[in-house]
Design goal:
Radius of gyration: 32 Å
Helix content: 55-70%
Number of strands: 4
Strand order of the largest sheet: 1-2
Strand content: 5-15%
Largest sheet: 2 strands, antiparallel
Length: 279
């Protein structure tokens, strides 16, 4: 039993139940409050400089900010489906991990998001080209890539029309994360590492196991192809094989005290040469 299993066994009774539902309710309330007060979400966002001046509540409230802010009618429609989609993904992960591990999954997202914001704040001013702020965005991305990993063939309707499997949504998300890490501003590079670290922490063993299994299957397939292509008979005289001429028959014959395969054509030629020598 691992150390984490021991901790889970002792502390699982303290795990928050139905955490996904609680987050969905919090996002909905925050979204509704932002309809008449656009600055409401901004007052909850994680700004390291604001935290250092005494606004400590931002360390906790930034995870309550939804990814979509109220505006046009489209934003309300997208928010409705986003909440449903997150509830589906979150409850699936919660059932997959159990309440305690799911709490740890979201808790690690929260801690790393705070760390990313303060690390970016500590950078030299000339390297900070974008405002340093954190919301629930990377938590949502971490949930999405985790859900895509455990349910790769689950199908959703993109834009309510196009059927897409989650494995492609996951790959697209990883491509976006990779692009930000490779070419984004430095604060975004740091923040984009959050879902990567969380995913590897909880799914790293599964990923390594799948990669090893895939490598083993590739090796087994290569051996099978090699065996399949390998000739079973090879004529000791003309060196033709049953792979080169499947219609040709072979016979076992003694040559220099060893049993070798000789094709029927070479046997017939040998017999004809012996008859000529006898005559």
């Amino acid at each position: 039993m691992s150390l984490f299993d021991t901790i889970e066994r002792r502390l699982q009774r303290f795990a928050a139940q139905r955490l996904t539902l609680a987050l969905c309710i919090a996002w909905t309330i925050c979204f509704l409050f932002s309809i008449n007060n656009q600055a409401f979400s901004e007052s909850l966002a994680l700004h390291p400089d604001a935290v250092l001046t005494g606004e400590w509540w931002r360390l906790f409230t930034f995870i309550l900010i939804p990814m979509i802010q109220p505006g046009t009618l489209i934003s309300y429609i997208f928010m409705f489906f986003l909440i449903q989609f997150y509830y589906l993904m979150g409850t699936t992960l919660e059932h997959h991990f159990g309440a305690f591990r799911y709490n740890c999954y979201l808790g690690l997202c929260w801690i790393l998001s705070i760390a990313a914001a303060f690390i970016a704040q500590a950078l030299p001013p000339e390297l900070i080209t974008t405002p340093i702020t954190e919301s629930s965005g990377w938590i949502f991305v971490a949930i999405l890539v985790g859900f895509a990993w455990i349910q790769p063939n689950f199908q959703i309707l993109l834009m309510l029309i196009i059927p897409v499997k989650m494995k492609w949504v996951g790959l697209l998300s990883w491509a976006g994360i990779g692009f930000l890490i490779a070419a984004g501003p430095i604060p975004l590079k740091i923040s984009a590492c959050v879902p990567v670290i969380v995913f590897l922490t909880f799914f790293g063993k599964d990923l390594l196991f799948r990669l090893r299994n895939k490598q083993r299957r590739v090796q087994q397939k290569a051996v099978a192809i090699k065996v399949e292509r390998q000739a079973f008979h090879e004529c000791a005289i003309c060196h033709i094989t049953d792979r080169q001429d499947p219609e040709r028959s072979f016979r076992v014959s003694q040559q220099d005290g060893q049993s070798v395969d000789i094709c029927q054509v070479c046997l017939d030629q040998r017999k004809a040469a012996q008859q000529n020598d006898d005559s």
